[in-house]
Amino acid sequence: MSNIEVTVKRTEPRTVAFVAMKGPYAQIGETFPKLYNWLREKGYAPVGPPYGVYFNSPEQVPAEELLWEMHLPISGDVAPSGPDERGLGVKRVEGAEVAATMHKGPFDQVGKIYGALVGWIMENGYQIVGPPEEFYLTDPAYTPAEELLTEVRFPVRKG
Description:
single chain, 159 residues, Multidrug-efflux Transporter 1 Regulator Bmrr, Chain A, 9-stranded antiparallel beta sheet, 2 helices, globular
């Protein structure tokens, strides 16, 4: 897996609708509809693929202690707010330099690429400076599991 293709790029600042979660990643499937329904309620328009931000990992804590957020970039000048009692809100995400690689296949296989990406980051003189993100570029409702595309990113800094 060490022969992965990695791109270092700068991301743009963005406004996102988000839902803050605690607990097993098995909840991800039910979290997207919650976020999309809230967007419709508020009249916000999505402008990019949804993505997850993972603040700890199953290697570090029990599943019920996992902390993560689902983000959905939205258009317009929407003021930051929340999270509300359901964990939903809007926030501004600053641009960052990221090391990114693509995973093709089922979502439950994405974790396998993390070690290779972290290895590449270290071997190339970068430091990880924030939590990983997974951008879900294809919709599992319309895409076979083996064709799903997920971009995995770590915010990085040289040296």
